[in-house]
Amino acid sequence: MAEDESLERKVRKLEVQHAETRWLTLRLDDDVKELREDLREVKATQQVHTTVLNEHTALLNEHSAKLQEHDARFDSVDSQLRSLTQMVGQVLDRLPEK
């Protein structure tokens, strides 16, 4: 009889462990589903941010090109203004003093 009781206790213990294992497995499955959902959201957000970053990079490149263009124009105007200033100075030097 003691042997039967010991065997029954072992079987009950195994049943309890099995139930706990199933519960933990279900909980783990829920956690994995939640993590996958979070990962999908992160990937979607990352995709949006990458798109925005690419758009901003394109705008920055356009603005950089325009800035270089304006710098070149400024340098040209500055050079012409210096040349004109020198010519005016030379003309003034050649004028007779009164």
Short description:
This protein has 98 residues and is mainly α.
Residue stretches low in confidence (pLDDT < 50, at least 5 long) are none
Radius of gyration: 41 Å
Distance between the termini: 142 Å
User: Beta fraction of the residues?
Assistant: under 5%
N-to-C series of helices and strands: H
State mean pLDDT (0 to 100 scale).
95
Q: How many structural domains?
A: 1
Residue share in helix: over 70%
Q: How would a textbook summarize the main sheet?
A: none
Count of helical stretches: 1
- Sum up the overall morphology in one term: rod-shaped
- How many strands appear in the DSSP assignment? 0
Derived structural class:
mainly alpha
Question: Topology, please?
Answer:
Layout: H1 2-94
Task: Explain this structure.
With 98 residues, this protein is an all-alpha fold. It has one domain (1-89). Helix content is 95%, strand content 0%. The chain has one helix and no strands. It is rod-shaped. The model has no long low-confidence stretch (mean pLDDT 95). Residues 25-73 form a coiled coil. Keywords: Coiled coil.
